[in-house]
Amino acid sequence: MTAQREFVVGDVLPLPSGSARDRGKPHDHILVAGNDTDVLIVPICTLRRSHKDVELVLTGDELDWLEQPSFPLLTRARLVPRANLRNLISSATRQTKANAKGLLEATASSKKVAATVGRLIYTSDNVADRLKRFIAEVGPVPPR
How far apart are CA 66 and CA 68, in angstroms? Predict the structure, then answer.
């Protein structure tokens, strides 16, 4: 049996996190930071005209799999036990074939996006202090 690949910063994970009407629907999340027990993930959402105060707009130039302009939804950033990630991905990809691509391994550009999102989390007024402390503990905040 081969060892399973570890999750790394910049990986894009399809995890269940839908809205109230789409409960459990998988959405792409970028892994921003992690230690041996927990990882910090942030959903990547499609940009709509109704979205205001978006701090970072992402396009296919930054993440080649994006089909439409998107943004990291910082207010939905969350810590997840590292041990639960494989089960969450498996659950999400079973529920719908719309996101059958599964895990997208980190690339140089997705690692840059993860670093930028980490910096935004650390400096945002709209993110819980415990998430900011997690970023500060697991590694240096990337310089501006």
Answer: 6
